Amino acid sequence: MLFWIYYIIAAYILFLLIKELFNEKDFKVQIAIAISLIPFILRIFLIK
Amino acid sequence: MNNGTSKNPILLLLIVVILCAYSSIEFLGMRKPDLLIPSKSLTAIKKLSNYFKGMKNTSADSDIYFFDSGKPGGTVLLLGGTHPNEPAGFITAVVLLEQLKCEEGRVIIIPQACLSGFTCTDPLEGYPSSFTVKGKYGDRKFRFGSRVANPLDQWPDPLVYQHYPSGQKLSNFESRNLNRCYPGNPEGSLMQQTAYAILQLIRSENVDVAFDLHEAAPEIPIINAIVAHEKARDVAGMAVLNLEFEDLKYALEISPVRFRGLSHREWGDSTTVFPFLMETSNPIQGRLRGVTNEKLVLYGTDQNYKKALESGKLRIEYLVSGEPLKLRVGRHLQAFLAVLSAFNELNPDKHITVSKVPGYHDLMINGVGFYLN
């Protein structure tokens, strides 16, 4: 159960970050958001 | 700069997906089992779950290899990979597994005692995820794991780890350290269950002598040492003297009575076995080390330790030539043979005789790869 809660939280933050990436107009900030996406994607797909 | 277009996010997302896919391959690669090729003398393979059913289908259900001579004698158990970031312990067990012939009594080997720890590395240490040994029949790749079990298998860590049953308090991540979990608990965490299964194996197979092979940073005082339970003091003392004849210096340490959870303490207190823990010096675990890569695992030469030694400020034993894997594995093998020989001398009714096991000098001449199948 704990794993699923973690999984849902990570997926929700990932969704918010992608939304922010598309709303952001500054390219430098877009890069920063893209970098922060990496741990979330890895966490969601590689979590047990 | 405000020149963003809707193409930028898509391009960036694509780059992120490629980077994630690349790192996933290495990350998931650590779940691929190591190839081990036992010698022809192997008589049976079991799993820890044969001794404690609760281990079945867990990522810690390690293989156990049996070499039974069919002749009466004692039984010896050897554990490698209790700490998967200490490769000499694991590789010594692999060399034995792939070369050994048992002539009297029985030999039981668990090369990857903490199997879960082989599926990840320690955070912030920059360890390589594997190392390759050039073998007689081709390259052999082995995983370089973490000191403790994978947090995906045992999570979350408690705020403070309380050892069962003593109640001794240790820092939280030690709850995932197999060598702080003995005698184990069938109702406890994955590592406590693993420790329990190993204790059940020692009891049900009537093991007489047991080894737990380790490595430590050069600055740790117990390197190049044999740690023995007090009841095994005579055997250990004789072995250390025998090793002196081979020009190998070993410190003999008696297992501390009040430090609970360690193999040499709990195996000895809970069963009739004579337990021994052996340590070699491994620069990749050292705090002074520089570049942390596969080369450091294999050759054990580090510029920072060398510089410290040359400056005269290093107050520990460190070889300028390094501490290569062949030297560390050779020391473990020679010490294993010396302890067995001392045990046989003091226990003539429980002889354990092995052959085809290379010693320290063989390893130094031929290297590790020569003894891999």
What can you tell me about this protein's structure?
The complex is a heterodimer of chains A (48) and B (373). With 48 residues, chain A is mainly α. Chain A has one domain. Helices cover 88% and strands 0% of the residues of chain A. With 373 residues, chain B is of the alpha/beta class. Chain B has one domain: 3-Layer(aba) Sandwich (Aminopeptidase). In chain B, β11, α4 and β12 form a beta-alpha-beta unit. Chain B is globular. The N and C termini of chain B lie far apart (61 Å). The interface between A and B is medium-sized, with 22 and 22 residues.
Please outline the major beta sheet of chain A: none
CATH topology of chain B: Aminopeptidase
Helix-strand pattern of chain A: HH
Largest sheet of chain B: 8 strands, mixed
For this structure, what is the CATH class of chain B? Alpha Beta
List the helices and strands of chain B in order: HEEEHEEEEEEHEEHEHEHHHEH
What ranges of chain A have pLDDT less than 50 throughout 5 or more consecutive residues?
none
Strand percent estimate of chain A: under 5%
**Beta strands of chain A, count:** 0
Beta-strand residue percentage of chain B: 15-25%
* Mass-distribution shape of chain A: elongated
Number of domains of chain B: 1
Rounded mean pLDDT of chain A is: 87
Q: Report the CATH architecture of chain B.
A: 3-Layer(aba) Sandwich
The helix fraction of chain A, in percent, is: over 70%
